[in-house]
Amino acid sequence: MAEVLDADEVDNRVPEGWEREDDEIVRVYEFDDYLKGVSFAQSVGEVAEEEFHHPTITIRYEEVEVRLTSHEEGGITEKDIRLAGLFDDEF
């Protein structure tokens, strides 16, 4: 089981563009059109499946919101921080 990071650790280590909201880290990615966002969400899903760590993904007209937390551990862990960076690589 991974160790939950405290608020300062999260704030210092979360990738640029991500924000801490309670026990999740969140980023909204913006796109020129809906289908580009859908394609990005598909890429995020593929990475998440490979890592076996699944975010909440919300697709809107020109944006995709991604939320990460480690439910079993009860907060944000190194796994969430790492996965956020991998999602940014897909963007």
TrEMBL record:
Keywords: Lyase. InterPro entries: PCD_sf, Pterin_deHydtase. It holds the Pfam family Pterin_4a. It catalyses: (4aS,6R)-4a-hydroxy-L-erythro-5,6,7,8-tetrahydrobiopterin = (6R)-L-erythro-6,7-dihydrobiopterin + H2O. It comes from the Archaea. Its EC number is 4.2.1.96. Gene3D superfamilies: Transcriptional coactivator/pterin dehydratase. Transmembrane segments: none annotated. GO terms for molecular function: 4-alpha-hydroxytetrahydrobiopterin dehydratase activity. CDD domains: PCD_DCoH (cd00488). NCBIfam families: PRK00823.1-2. Belongs to the pterin-4-alpha-carbinolamine dehydratase family. This is 4a-hydroxytetrahydrobiopterin dehydratase.
